[in-house]
Amino acid sequence: LIDFIHHTKKLPEGMDTYFRPMCKQGHAYRYDSFDPNYETIKYTSPKECTTCPFQQDQCQKVHKIRVAKDIRRYTVPARGSESFKVLYKRRTAVERVFAYLKLYFGMGSTRWRQTRARVDFDLSCLAYNLSKLTLDRLNKELESSKVKKLA
Question: What is the model's pTM?
Answer without folding.
Answer: 0.57
